[in-house]
Amino acid sequence: MRYPLTTDDRGEVVLRVVPQLSQINTNGHIFGGWILSQMDIAGGIVAGRIADGAVATVAIESMKFISPMLVGDIVSVYAREERRGRTSVGVRVDVVAIRGSEQQQVDLTSGLFTFVALDENHRPRPLPSA
Question: What residues does the HotDog ACOT-type domain cover (predicted)?
Fold first, then answer.
């Protein structure tokens, strides 16, 4: 049995990170590409569990940046299975910040990541039964 750090209706907290100054863009916010990479990592962890092996990202759908991420935010990346095909799985990834001394929760971004299960030759393979 796997024990997630935290769960709620968003799914399981797969990653919890604090962005560093090196991730700031020219507007003083966290670079969107950095958070996208964190989302891909978290989604890949969940997809790999579902596939019981290697996966590859094949699509990112409906990506939406809701609020800017700020230096000092504690960022939680949630992920959950949203859909399943024969060889692929769609993983919803939501990112929430805990901000300031009031510990305010701020929704930052959300996206649907599609991963395909890979065999030893890096070709698509069927997912295990649910």
Answer: 7-121
Estimate to the nearest angstrom the gap between the alpha carbon of 43 and the chain centroid. 4
Q: What share of the chain is helix, strand, coil (3-state, %, to 5)?
A: 20, 45, 35
pLDDT tens figures, 41-79? 999 999 999 999 999 999 999 888 899 888 889 999 999
How many Cβ atoms sit within 10 Å of the Cβ of residue 93? 30
User: Which two three-digit tokens encode residue 14?
Assistant: 């797969």
- Half-sphere exposure of residue 85, counting CA atoms within 13 Å on the CB side? 11
Alpha helices, DSSP H, located in 1-130? 32-51
The domains located in the chain, with CATH, are 7-117 (3.10.129.10)
Backbone CA torsion sign across 89, 18, 62, 80: positive
Q: Give the separation between CA 51 and CA 91, rounded to whole angstroms.
A: 12
The candidate with the shortest Cα–Cα distance to 74, out of 42, 45, 100, is 100
Tokens 């560093």 correspond to what residue? 20
> Are β-strands 74-84 and 88-99 bridged in parallel, bridged antiparallel, or unpaired?
antiparallel
